[in-house]
């Protein structure tokens, strides 16, 4: 009866999840959570919105309320340090899939060799760790020949650009198909081990609907666990329901590459630590005072709300039992009295 009662009171929420790119395996867990009904079970109607390639910044959309949840990279922290009340809920990728791309026969062997080279640039916050690699090697923009328009893979293939930002599951697949040799210079190799594909929301949404946010988080993590175990099913969903432009072969390559960044065998799915976020903040050049001022509350604490919810459920159950006890004993006493009277009559 309690289950029916709580089920009838379950609220229905319509929420928007804003992706930071177009539909692909990168967002597999959310597709699985939606497909397997995990959001629906929690009373949440989720719409997943792909990014416009010309406008991939998810933060303004979440801050404005255009979206309720978003996906971002470690650059999300820069917004928090600027005073924007954003909360990191889960770091799906435990390290960044963004790297610098150079030709296989290039004389560029390290970031230090970027000086005087034509380097493609795009949104700094989208790949802040790549810019940190430059800063770590004391390379400023004046040391480079920055290209802000010639940033396509074809420009790089044609030799218009020497160095290009790349995503390990995208450009490398195309280059392998074309038998073009390449090398990747990645942040982790330089000791810049940043989080990526961070699920986030606004603090005011947590304040207004803490249970809904918790349910969305739990359903999403459950979806990601399914996606890890059933990548082929995700690919089928992406092709049939989201009209991805990527081929099945590309999606399979993407799955193989990106699942390594989740590290499910080494870490709790989506886990984050304040010490690592502090290190990332320092990597971005933030001072200790600013970090101390803004970092507290940046990491979502689902277990705190979950334990609180658990306690309240117990309290409600105990109250129902206590309220029901008098009626139970009256019925029991009445039953025993009737039984005694029947036995007396029979005797």
UniProtKB/TrEMBL annotation:
GO terms for biological process: thiamine biosynthetic process. GO terms for molecular function: metal ion binding; transferase activity. It holds the Pfam family NMT1. It catalyses: N(6)-(pyridoxal phosphate)-L-lysyl-[4-amino-5-hydroxymethyl-2-methylpyrimidine phosphate synthase] + L-histidyl-[4-amino-5-hydroxymethyl-2-methylpyrimidine phosphate synthase] + 2 Fe(3+) + 4 H2O = L-lysyl-[4-amino-5-hydroxymethyl-2-methylpyrimidine phosphate synthase] + (2S)-2-amino-5-hydroxy-4-oxopentanoyl-[4-amino-5-hydroxymethyl-2-methylpyrimidine phosphate synthase] + 4-amino-2-methyl-5-(phosphooxymethyl)pyrimidine + 3-oxopropanoate + 2 Fe(2+) + 2 H(+). InterPro entries: NMT1/THI5 (IPR027939), SsuA/THI5 (IPR015168). Keywords: Iron, Membrane, Metal-binding, Pyridoxal phosphate, Thiamine biosynthesis, Transferase, Transmembrane, Transmembrane helix. Residues 24-233 form the SsuA/THI5-like domain. Pathway: Cofactor biosynthesis; thiamine diphosphate biosynthesis. The chain crosses the membrane at residues 310-329. SUPFAM superfamilies: Periplasmic binding protein-like II. Homodimer. Belongs to the NMT1/THI5 family. Responsible for the formation of the pyrimidine heterocycle in the thiamine biosynthesis pathway. Catalyzes the formation of hydroxymethylpyrimidine phosphate (HMP-P) from histidine and pyridoxal phosphate (PLP). The protein uses PLP and the active site histidine to form HMP-P, generating an inactive enzyme. The enzyme can only undergo a single turnover, which suggests it is a suicide enzyme. This is Thiamine pyrimidine synthase. It comes from Pseudoalteromonas tunicata D2.
